[in-house]
Design brief:
The chain is of the alpha+beta class. It has helices at about 1-15, 65-80, 100-110, 130-140, 170-180; strands spanning about 35, 40-45, 55-60, 85-90, 150, 160. The chain contains 5 helices and 6 strands. A hairpin with a 5-residue loop joins β5 and β6. The chain is globular.
């Protein structure tokens, strides 16, 4: 009896807080998820409520690395109207630098990145346990490769997912972003 009680209590806590100690999120919204920032500060999606967010898993040694420039350009173009871009470095494809400091330096020196960047996070494969990416996979929007872009509306719902072959400034990405922003 005691084992069942402890098991039930443990499962209840796991359901309430998810695998990474984060609160469970309603299936339709990412608003309760957060990432550890590359500088150690939390990047909470709830902080961007009411504004669209483009979450992109990145890799510094990937053939699509020049998309960093496109991501920064999109961020520069639309941040004044509310868009946030969040870069999530990942070594899932074995193409990321070894440390957060190296990733940060690479992004700043080579692309003048100033949008929020998370710590290195596995996004695919057996080691991919981040709750945001588990949720995105369950929604059919999980990444298969680097530079996979997930566009969230102001309520935290997925409104678009774009693979590495789609540039950040591709017409369909820009149209989806503009549809979420106030006129301006």
């Amino acid at each position: 009896m005691r084992r069942r009680t402890l098991l039930g209590w443990g499962l209840g806590l796991a359901a309430a807080f998810g695998a990474a100690g984060q609160p469970a999120v309603a299936s339709g919204s990412a608003a309760g998820f957060s990432f550890a920032g590359i500088d150690g500060a939390e990047i909470a999606l709830a902080d961007f409520a009411g504004r669209p967010v483009l979450v992109v898993n990145t890799a510094s040694r990937c053939g699509f690395v020049n998309q960093f420039g496109g991501l920064q350009a999109v961020y520069d173009r639309y941040r004044g109207r509310g868009l946030t871009v969040i870069g999530v470095p990942s070594n899932s494809s074995r193409q990321e630098l070894a440390t957060e400091a190296a990733v940060k330096d690479f992004c700043e020196v080579n692309f003048a990145i100033d949008f929020p960047i998370a710590q290195i996070t596995d996004v695919t494969g057996a080691a991919a346990h981040h709750p945001f990416y588990a949720w995105a996979r369950a929604q059919g929007a999980g990444p298969r490769w680097n530079f996979h872009k997930i566009l969230l509306d102001g309520e935290g719902r997925i409104v678009g997912a774009y693979g590495a072959m789609t540039a950040p400034d591709a017409p369909k990405v820009i149209a989806a972003i503009e549809a979420l922003l106030p006129a301006g």
